[in-house]
Amino acid sequence: MFKFNFDVEGTDMDPTILGPLLEPSSNSSSSAAGTMQTFRELTLNELLDALPDMISYSPLSFPLSSGRDLTLVRRDLFDARFQLISEAEEDPDEETSKREKISESSLKFVDSPSDLVPGVYEGGLKTWECALDLVDYLENSGARSPTGKVILELGCGTAIPSIYLLERLFAQPPTNTGLPMTHIHLQDYNDAVLQLVTLPNILLNWYMSPASISFRQSITSSEVSFPPVDSTAPGELPITSELVAAFQDSLLAFNISLRFFTGSWETFDLQQSLSLTKEANRDRTYDMVLTSETIYRVESLSALIELMRKSVGQHEYQCLVAAKILYFGVGGGVSEFVARVEGQSGRVETVWEKSAGVGRKIMQVHWP
């Protein structure tokens, strides 16, 4: 069991000021606990049905190298914990027609002082620094528009990079004709992470975007009070059937497909994940694979690298990895990652680097 000594959960925290990387706890010699989670897809409808009646959120603001300050919103961690407690207290014999119960074991890692329980919980409820680095790089690299692309974020957690891409899409005029569909796929080891933070964060940022303006203009009921569109202030968003329907309508209007996958990288089924994305005359591969803070454990590197290699195939599609130079306590880091990629005939190019303080990099992986 391991403890990251920092994250960016505090809205007033400078993400460039870091403490020690990764500190083993007293029982750090123990092996991965539990049974490995196997691949499965959680449908958008499943995740929407699992939403509570209200979501509490706070802003996440950070400066970009482009000169603009980006502000997104995230579900509060205490709010996710409250949802777990509430569902755990429900009558276990009662049928849950609306919501699928989240495992009671999820509550253990929300309350745990550890940020990593190998094989059980992989840190996805919190936002880590390298996710912000990846957003900054995407903003300044001249990357092409995500419109019409097939994108996979591995180990997505709070999904900040994917939400940034969705922000770009939602800022454009909607169109459901003339352009190919944009596919954004999000994977995390834990299904509870997708239910508690990944999908709620996407929904929250949709509400704060121009894409929700039609819904907000249509609100006439005085019984439900929706918050103002202000991503710089904390608030609470009521989850009504009308809001959920408007969100789904927006995805159709913007020609966006969201899919969610859970389980280990070893068991990830690329054939299933790409089964609905084949356009005329294109291979079944991803145009872009993104991942951040996922190379901290040596034991999982081979599976991650093999999945990335198969995901992009023999193409110059972008495969971006954001990570710290070294993760103390578990042995992972950039050097080991590069060695493993080169061992599979790949090539790693550093496209962004921060050397002051705790070193961090963004690497683009090329395959022959």
Instruction: State the CATH superfamily name.
Output: Vaccinia Virus protein VP39
Topology-level CATH name? Rossmann fold
How do the SSEs run, as a string of H and E?
Answer: EEEHEEHHHEHEHHEHEHEHEHEE
Sequence stretches where pLDDT stays below 50 over 5 or more residues: 1-6, 10-33, 95-102
What integer value in Å does the Rg equal?
Answer: 20 Å
Class inferred from helices and paired strands: alpha/beta
* Total beta-strand segments: 13
Determine the number of helices (DSSP H or I, runs of at least 4 residues). 11
- The fraction of residues assigned to DSSP E strands is 15-25%
Domain module count: 1
CATH domain class name: Alpha Beta
Oligomer: single chain
Estimate the mean pLDDT confidence. Answer: 82
Q: How far is it from the N-terminal to the C-terminal residue, by CA?
A: 37 Å
Side by side, the strands of the main sheet go 3-9-7-6-10-11-13-12
- Major β-sheet annotation: 8 strands, mixed
Task: Write the CATH architecture name.
Answer: 3-Layer(aba) Sandwich
Fraction of helical residues: 25-40%
Shape: globular
Structural notes for this entry:
With 368 residues, the chain is an alpha/beta fold. It has helices at 44-49, 77-88, 105-111, 129-140, 160-170, 191-207, 213-218, 241-253, 270-273, 301-312, 334-343; strands at 2-4, 22-24, 40-42, 54-63, 69-75, 150-154, 182-188, 235-238, 256-262, 288-292, 318-324, 347-354, 360-366. The chain has one domain: Vaccinia Virus protein VP39 (Rossmann fold). 30% of the residues lie in helices and 21% in strands. The strands form three sheets. An eight-stranded mixed β-sheet has the order 3-9-7-6-10-11-13-12, sandwiched between helices. Helix 5 links the parallel strand 6 and strand 7. Helix 2 (77-88) packs antiparallel against helix 3 (105-111) and helix 5 packs parallel to helix 6. The relative contact order is 0.16. Mean pLDDT is 82; it is low at 1-6, 10-33 and 95-102.
